[in-house]
Amino acid sequence: MSQKSVAVVVVAAGRGERAGSAGDTVPKQYRSVGGQAILARTVEAFVSQPNVSWVLPVIHPEHEQRYAALGLGGDERLLAPVHGGSTRQGSVLAGLKALAPLKPDLVLIQDAARPFVPAALIESVIYSLGAAQGALPTLPVTDTIKRSLDGAEVVGTEDRRLLHAAQTPQGFRFGQIFSAHMRAASVRREFTDDAEIAEWAGLRVVMVPGHRDNIKITHPDDFARAERIISGDTRMETRIGTGYDVHHFTDGDAVWLGGVEIPHNKRLMGHSDADVALHALTDALLGAIGEGDIGIHFPPSDPQWKGARSTVFLRHAGDLVAQRGGRIVNVDVTIVCEAPKIAPHAAAMQGVIGEALGLSTNRIAIKATTNEKLGFIGREEGIVAMASASVEVPRVD
Description:
Strand content: 25-35%
Distance between the termini: 49 Å
CATH topology of the largest domain: Spore Coat Polysaccharide Biosynthesis Protein SpsA, Chain A
Number of domains: 2
Radius of gyration: 26 Å
Largest sheet: 8 strands, mixed
Number of strands: 19
Low-confidence stretches: none
Mean pLDDT: 92
């Protein structure tokens, strides 16, 4: 993409009441983290980027003195702030109108309450606009999402594999998003973010990988996390878990291994689908977080698991890691058998495991070996699988 002018709208017109404790009247964007106001950190994250042409803060009309007290300045790319509207959508439109005379090629729209946006993420959003009309950073959703009509009763479960949490900056071609915002202002609807306006206007919006430190400071507890990010003390520790499983053969025509059905002249005997690879991996994840083994969570005596796909067990283990505030770093599975051949199916296994755990395939290893015709494996009486998993979880002192 040839060099284009890039403007940034920093949306800072909210009152920031949710982030304050009782009696605290300082809006969150003006509160200090690591000795510097959140808004100042956010503005400087963009002013420091050589490919950014202008940065325009949009502030609340009552916050002029607070903004002036930040002492921002010294860079001609930082424009004088403009006043926002009564809603975030109105504030963004005010910023776009103020930028219109400059005729920027691209515009990034950033929440003031995200002060830790990495330079690489900014560059990634800008780069993606070379081929797309809109770009936004996202993170895959790891929690199970329930749907409720009244906030009390569950009526359904969303497919989290299709869900992604949006971050900012959200980037667009200036003329297109300005036009979309002008049209959106004329309808009786409040959009949740600028990407939704772009989608509504028919623009093509692509996703780029977000960053877990690119947090939005919304609630009081977020300030403690922000301080940990600044200090470099995320208070995470690495845990290692291992798993082992074995199943013997019986009459059949296929085996399930790593979530993939492989044609064979036998099948593995078990209460569920007898997928030794996923059983071993599930145990490795459970072991890493001290949650026992697969039999505790899915006892073979329970008829509901009769014939169940082992991806159910694996997703459960992944959910438990996420509920601890952790993340899976990598997993490693070794399958020991004389037959069937594993190598032709390894990539498919990586795909199944990656989908179940929200992992990229470069964090998933599938290996296979024979037992050199020794023992019950060598006699082709069964299959063994071993697995290890590395996870990061918040440290508990």
